Queue: 2 jobs
Job 1
Amino acid sequence: MSDSTNNNRDTQDKDKFRDTVFLPKTDFPMRGNLPEKEPVMVQKWQDIDLYAKIRHASADKPKWILHDGPPYANGNIHMGHALNKILKDVINKSWQMMGYNAPYVPGWDCHGLPIEWKVEEKYRNAGKDKDDVDPIQFRKECREFAQEWVDIQSTQFQTLGVIGDWKNPYRTMTKHGEAQIAREIHKFLHNGGLYRGVKSVLWSTVEQTALAEAEVEYKEHKSITVWVRFPVVETACEALKNSDIVIWTTTPWTLPSNRGIFFNNDIDYGVYEITEVADDARCKVGDRLAFATKLSDQIKEQAKIIAMKKVAEFKGTETEGTICAHPLRGQGYDYDVPCHPADYVTDEDGTGFVHVAPSHGPDDFVLGSQYGLEITDNVDNDGSFKAHVPLFAGLKIYDENGKMDAGNFAPLKAMDEAGKLLSKGSVRHEYPHSWRSKAPLIFRTTPQWFIAMDNELGLRETALQAIKDTNWVPAKGEARINAMIAQRPDWCISRQRAWGVPIALFVDKKTLEPLKDDAVLKRITDAFEEHGSDAWWSMDAQEFLGSAYNAEEYDQIFDIVDVWFESGSTHSFVVDDREDLGNGENKQVDLYLEGSDQHRGWFHSSLLESCGTKGRAPYKNVLTHGFVLDDKGYKMSKSLGNIVDPLKLMKQSGADILRLWTMTSDYAEDIRIGKDTIKNTSDLYRRIRNTLRFLLGAMDGFTASEKIPEDQYKDMPELEKLMLHELSQMDQKIRGHIENYEFGKLATMLHQFCNNELSSFYFDIRKDRLYCDDATSFERRATRTVMTHIFDCLVTWLAPILSFTAEEAWSQKPDGIFEDAQSIHLRDFPTLPESWHNADLAGKWDKIIAARKQIQEAIEPLRASKGLGSSLEACPVLYATADQKEALESVDMADICITSGFKIEEGNANIEITKAEGEKCNRCWKVLPEVTNHANHICNRCDNVVNKKQAA
RNA sequence: GGGCUUGUAGCUCAGCUGGUUAGAGCGCACCGUUGAUAACGGUGAGGUCGCAAGUUCAAGUCUUGCCAGGCCCA
């Protein structure tokens, strides 16, 4: 007989018996093809209004509320948005499936500068000036712009698989939102938190307006530098007597506003007596000058001093209490100029002494205020000196084109004439300019509205306590926000802008006190509720003031409120005011969840706002995630060209890949994304998908009658019971992780369960039973019953993460076995019977599994030497102690090791692999002696099954 | 410049209060299977735990410095 004849017979037999084997069958494809399927599913969820169905189905369950932080309605979503929204969705779905009613109301931040700019830009491009546009019209265009992006982002978020109330999100620009934000401001008016103060801001003399930091561009600018002498008039420092302190500045125009001198306690200073000077030097022999010793050579050269000697040394600390005269004393500048320490003063350049004009620099302002230095009001909106300024009234710092003007040169000249100018020069340095006009900017103090941190309201104290009362996840977030709240200055909430909610107040022109009449305030917010805050511009002031007050005696405030105050108020106008979230019970929500930057942003402003109005935090738990970086750990940026676009990624790989990536990363830290990570995630995804596919295939044709009744579970084989135990273990771990906000471990755990417990263990072992056993046998029914339980659990556990894939798998399940839910997302995690838990069994099987592992290792060398192919060709002999022998004999080790035979002998621990005796069964492929006796070359078991099948 | 923070195999992550040869999954290599088949099973090779000092009988784990990142400020 030739080989080919043999092969033919084998092939025929194989074909013959292949049809009698119960191979897995399912329409759930191996390949996900997610980019095509996901959008269809999103559409379906919208069509059936899945969100409403979930709400309806869980209406009676206890509420669990994650309150969404509003993204800014401007531009397409980026990876950070994707991470944030996916995380929220996974967490929310998890709690929902734990048996809670977890509504998700997405929101948007709609007011603010970036949108205002975009609209302004449109006007500029049309050759119009924003200031010429009617504010109502301007705001209308801003609103339309914002709404456009709300709609776009809404669609994009939904493609991520995020389920929420997309039909009815919250927005900071709705009429109710604006009205309630105004009410919140009024609460601070009543509780004493709100006050009017001044603040140092960057000011454009050309546009005559304050600029936000984001409107400022830093570029090179040539400034005048001057070294100026301040004669010491009073000092406890012996060295300083009869000398002049030398300061250095690049802004000569600030000298008329000088009110102090700062030094550094740690710097070494010297007093130098001039002994020889050049002809064109501005100082003379015998002058005594004080400055930092480290800078003496530099100053000597600059001042054209040929020779000088150090006559005294002193530490910065000794300078305390020294008082100087202004260089223009006798010409209207007769006040004292005190010296104070300041850490920011260095001896890197200049003189080691810094001149202080509290009105014209942020450091000057903050420290100057602390030392009680006068905040001058010398400079007008257009950059000219006000009329009360001696010598320089009317002179402008910059002209209308932003060029340096007499306001800079005149003080310099006056100093020189007074003999107080030591030297002058120029320097090129980075300097703030207007984004719009490109003109250089100046610092100027302007009146602004503040919320006090430390007055009778005690906001800082309340907030610090609220931080302690909140659960911060990860815990390090607490230290971060605590430091910020502990150190922050009063909250400046006013902006001189158009697109926002006005700080809707009237201020008495005479007393400068804001009007606190409730009737007036109510008329204002009622009008906002009806017309939106546009009413502040469109209605007449007298309409708000009513008959009790005369509009002419009041200033109407047109400043708008900081957008952080708006989003910080969402706990009020969203959480408290929406029935679906709220409960109207003034209750804290369960979770705020944002990036770690929000310790300064939303967590922070929400905390202050809520502490000010409610005396406690708006949240119980705060979860933070890190930032998305590129594959090397660098920040994504256009210039580096390393941006990963979530929309593109979804089109290439699918949202479920993105979702899985999020959850397998340690999102508490910054996370990386790149080619490798996506590849890795796709591989993980394939394994999970194939596990679902195998389960679906294994359940092919399963009906309720095949299912083992609950009361017979005790008779199931141990392996089946072990798997039920594994399920109950998983169930407990999963619930524990969710309750402790340890979502990072979930996806990894699920994947490893698919991989280890299922694919390489249970499925591999039970393939024989599924494929070859009698379909009606108790054992096969038990296996298939357990498969339905595994599927029931796994598909639901996966649903929060792989929302699309789980839904797809759910749609492929056999009928009549599972809960009748239209969508997987309408389900809860299955409640597993207590009886499934079986620690003793698990303990026993630990040993069995260890033995299995040893057998597998022992087979390997034979395979390598070609002594063996399939493990079914082997018959291991295990030598073990009597105890072990007993345990192993109680189970079918051949099945478990997927070998055709298995012998256990008493003896010293050892393993021998022998070849199984007999021939390969043409149906089940086991190598058994009995096969030889059958005409069809099949084993007894298979023969029975085939005969029974034919009879049926 | 300041506050907070990160750095463990090619990738994603574990490593509790310092204690035997640093773990897992993926990927990779090799083998098996060809009845989960663009799948499945097994075995194996990969790490001076960012670098350098120090504390200790003992450090990935504690201290200090440095390097490279990140967030928030200035």
Note: The longest strand of chain A covers residues 216-234.
Job 2
Amino acid sequence: MGLSYAEENYLKAILKLSGSPDGTVSTNAIAAQLDTSAASVTDMLKKLSDKELITYQRYKGASLTDDGQRIATTLVRKHRLWEVFLVQSLGMTWDEVHEIAEELEHIQSDRLIDRLDHFLGHPKFDPHGDPIPNAQGKYTLRAQIPLSELKPGQEGIVIGVREDETSFLKHLNEKGLTLGKSIKVITNDDYDNTLSLQVEGHELNLSGKVARNIMIKTT
Amino acid sequence: MGLSYAEENYLKAILKLSGSPDGTVSTNAIAAQLDTSAASVTDMLKKLSDKELITYQRYKGASLTDDGQRIATTLVRKHRLWEVFLVQSLGMTWDEVHEIAEELEHIQSDRLIDRLDHFLGHPKFDPHGDPIPNAQGKYTLRAQIPLSELKPGQEGIVIGVREDETSFLKHLNEKGLTLGKSIKVITNDDYDNTLSLQVEGHELNLSGKVARNIMIKTT
DNA sequence: AGCTCAATTTAGAGTAATCTAAAAAATATT
DNA sequence: AATATTTTTTAGATTACTCTAAATTGAGCT
Ligand SMILES: [Mn+2]
Ligand SMILES: [Mn+2]
Ligand SMILES: [Mn+2]
Ligand SMILES: [Mn+2]
């Protein structure tokens, strides 16, 4: 029997937040990620723990079990494959696909996803530059560095973003800072990483907050 | 604010069942269609009535309002477009797409559906031969007659099925009776419409129950 | 070691969707 | 017209998910 959308969203949130060593995630971090109350999170952590998808001890945080990790990774795979479909096949823009994929990722059918993956040509990255896990849960890592950490004079290519909210991506569209663009840093403020850079002949100013969410492959 | 999946499924069921003159549908008919209890149906009819998506009087059945009709028709459009996608683009078979489309139809995004429609080339019929409403809710009707009503000697082409359950469609696959096939009736039992017919050189026997769910365009 | 405060959990409650069993209304039969 | 049967509704519960407010726990600081 499958999981509910809510259970799946929690697993995905825990995976996203568990970058740390042992991968333990706090109740409040999950609540913030899912924009829900800490009390709701506690309830759900008990349920997921009963189903052995996470390990959880009161007051000690949660981490994914192997089963939980596998399920969460599959959700990420589905989310990102659908995003590729929406952009590549349907011609939607990178700023409008995340919310839709947030629903599509819950469609239940392994066969569907394998077919979709095949149809799309086994893409390795989604429209935001995030890696797509394969059917075995493995994915490609790339050397990348936040734009905010580049020194004046350094050059590179935009290969990803760390944030997929519509407002952020629309902002980048307006600045012309989309995937694949070549950039060169002119100045980078020591204090708050306010940047000026060169993109396709134009000069551009960016806040440190924005620059920290743009990932660069240096050239 | 959007409707829940349950509310949408009820609207779709009412549309499907309201072929009659005024289009009034009984509580039990809906319960049977959705495989749920009559008590649950009554609860939901009250809710949909409050939202003015149906007209409903106790003990008198329900019918769609214009708003309800519009929403239900859009759901049918989405369901059938997704079925076309699954078969045409992903190469799935007509017997495995209905259940998946039952979920996909609830994805919320008008823009997505318009893009999908465009991507698929504005198809007029789904993989079961059912017409696909356009964005305005209009669809093409075709002259068709149940195979069970053909007389011995009559010929035609399979242009649709009235039932999209997997088991039924798999049965047709085994018999080689798929969309587009040419058939010729040899015998048709007066009492129960047990048929024998000619398909691609082979002779085939069908129960009346099956024959009543296969739609033919006579030639 | 004890105190303080933030993080977390528990308590209690609400909404949505569903069920079974009992009551009421409508329809069919005699 | 009265009675029997079927259909539909109501009553009362259950499960899943969520919330706010109150209680508890644990970690950091004197
Ligand atoms: Mn996304
Ligand atoms: Mn989601
Ligand atoms: Mn279908
Ligand atoms: Mn559905």
Note: Chain A touches chain B at residues 86, 89-92, 96, 100, 103-104, 106-109, 111-112, 115-116, 119 (CB under 8 Å).
